[in-house]
């Protein structure tokens, strides 16, 4: 898993903040580049968390079926 030390909710809130900044402000290219990279990292982190959670839920459901 990535080195991001946030909960899923915290990562999602940070992503929302990034989107708001990009949509509402005039940013220079360097700022946008940094924000897009951070957003990409957060999206990948959230995807990993969701995939991991899905695997755990699938395993739990299989145990219930036994």
Task: Explain what the structure shows.
The protein has two helices and no strands. Helix 1 runs antiparallel to helix 2. The relative contact order is 0.16.
Strand content: under 5%
* Count of distinct strands: 0
**In whole angstroms, how far apart are the ends?**
30 Å
Average residue pLDDT = 93
State the helical fraction. Answer: over 70%
Along the chain, the helix and strand elements come as: HH
Largest sheet: none
Category from helices, strands and their pairing: mainly alpha
Unreliable spans are none
Question: For the CA atoms, what is the radius of gyration?
Answer: 16 Å
Q: Which descriptor suits the 3D outline?
A: elongated
Total of helices = 2
Give a quick rundown of the structure.
It contains two helices and no strands.
Q: Tags for this entry?
A:
single chain, 66 residues, mainly alpha, 0% strand
Topology diagram in text:
Layout lengths: L7 H17 L4 H37 L1
């Amino acid at each position: 898993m990535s080195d991001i030390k946030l909960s899923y909710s915290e990562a999602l809130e940070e992503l929302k903040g990034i989107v708001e900044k990009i949509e509402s402000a005039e940013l220079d290219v360097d700022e946008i580049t940094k924000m897009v990279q951070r957003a990409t990292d957060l999206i990948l982190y959230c995807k990993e968390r969701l995939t991991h959670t899905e695997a755990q839920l699938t395993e739990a459901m299989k145990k219930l079926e036994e």
